[in-house]
Amino acid sequence: MNNSRKIWEKPWDYTEGFIVAGGIALAGTLLQFPLGNINPVDFGSPVNIIIGALFVAGLLCCHFLLKGNYIVGWLSSVRSTLPALLVMLLFIVILGLTPQFTIYEPQEHLPGNIFSRMGWYRMTTSWTFVFLCFYMLTILGFTLLKKARKLQSWRRLGFYLNHLGLFIALLGGLLGSGDLQRFTMTVAEGNTEWRAQDASGNIRELPVAIELDTFKIEEYPPKLVVIDNRTGKILPENRPESYMFEAIGKTTQLNGNTIELLEYIPQAAIVRDSVFTNVVPMPMDGAATALKVRVTNPSLKEPVEGWVSNGSYMFPYQVLYIDEATSVAMPVQEVKKYTSQVTVFTKAGHTEKAGIEVNKPLSMEDWIIYQYSYDESMGKYSKTSVFELVRDPWLKVVYTGIFMLLAGALFLFIAGPRK
Predict the structure, then answer these.
(1) What is the pTM of this model?
(2) pLDDT of residue 382
């Protein structure tokens, strides 16, 4: 009877599946302690290509030379697949619940606990995760080869597209991490730059150059808050309140204070001495946003009136003291959008003009150029843009696998179940 079956007694069941998957995870963890995380750069081209070729060749050899082998047959069964998926899912959940750091982040920046040594804070480059991925690929490969041995109905096309697509996407993602290149490039307005910095801080000359034609930042309207003079925290601390400017003459309530908006100068110069503060319009770079407000509350004998500004790289910020404990302040305005109008040149002779924004990158040849940052010390007057340039030669392989997965799902939907 099945109830009296001993472990490793054939036919193997889910128990053996969990033991094998768990054993592979344990082997990866034991390697993790002495070796630390895998550095993908060590497995760049041609090492990754050789590993991929040997892995696929190994699957084919085992399939054709060990046709009757019980282990090869069991690895293509649901009794090995389901435990492997569940163990893999466990580590994916751990990945989602723990903060993740890049391989270039110094070890001292990671939490100093046992989980750090196990590679959980750099999960995708841990030996455990990589071993489990290759175990999943082994199961996928043997399953595909097993089904391909016999002539199948045309309805099996969806199965092949799904499984082969997943195999290609997963293998391409694993092997391609070694060839992934990521750089940051800082370009001043009106200049052309082709030198970039890698994650280690090394300067590299790239086969792509960027000329920054213009750089523009759009900001949201200014906000007003009431702050604690001692701590600088927005009040009330348990539920901070703020008001976004709409128009002159408006009135708002902040932390029990009635605040009336009297004047608004979007580009102002703030001139002050030990006694007086004077705010005048100044439509030029370096100007600050300023609002004149009147504050009243039951504890004040008379309204408090004055200017509030978030300052700029040229002028300091300005607050309006309500009393000894609180003040009206204007936080730094939030950025709505920043856009770089660029001309991109490649070593191959291609030229393209484009606007690059956050979440709107430019793809050119093998490069993807993202809007990364700007000179935050200059704020909205920044004339410098920072780009992130990414080159991933394996991305097309991964996309091919994903498109095959989608095609397989669409085929299964159209073909429908067998009647």
Answers:
(1) 0.80
(2) 95
